Amino acid sequence: MTQATAFPHEYVKAYLELIAEHFPGETTLNQLRILQYIGMRCSQGKGHTSHKEICEALGLTPSMVTRAVAAFMDAGVLREETDPADGRRRFVSLNPNRPGNGNLNAQVVTLAHQHFVTDRRSPD
Questions:
Q1: pTM (whole model) above 0.85
Q2: Does the pLDDT value for residue 3 go beyond 50?
Q3: Domain 9-116 - what CATH class?
Q4: Distance CA 59, CA 62 (A)
């Protein structure tokens, strides 16, 4: 295996190990996509997102989003609130009371930096 093909493989392995530390048990790719989207929306200052926004942004069905959100709520990763203006609409956000929620995005960025940002200087 060349260094070019081994490099991403090492990153993927490290990324999955990091996710497993935060979310024990089985986590699907769509669940990870949903969680990353929610984290991104929360970090943009809005603080929450809706099921509808997640479905539209990721091209997932409402039932897929509902199941993933429910699984992460059961694990204490997410919290859900009802929109006071429309009782049918639910907002989803990271649970601020769960230790490590604020660190996950920073850890993923650091991991990517460690694996993909290299010293571009030519060898002496």
A1: no
A2: no
A3: mainly alpha
A4: 10
Rounded to 10 deg, the angle between the 3-22 and 101-116 helix axes is 170
Domain boundaries, the chain: 9-116
Amino acid at site 123: P
First to last CA, the chain: 26
Q: Return the DSSP state at 73.
A: H
Longest dimension (CA), the chain: 65
Which of 35-39, 42-46, 51-55, 110-114 bottoms out in mean pLDDT, i.e. has the lowest? 110-114
Which residue has tokens 């429309």? 86
- φ, ψ of residue 98 to 5 degrees: the values are -90, 120
Distance of CA 75 to the CA centre of its chain: 14
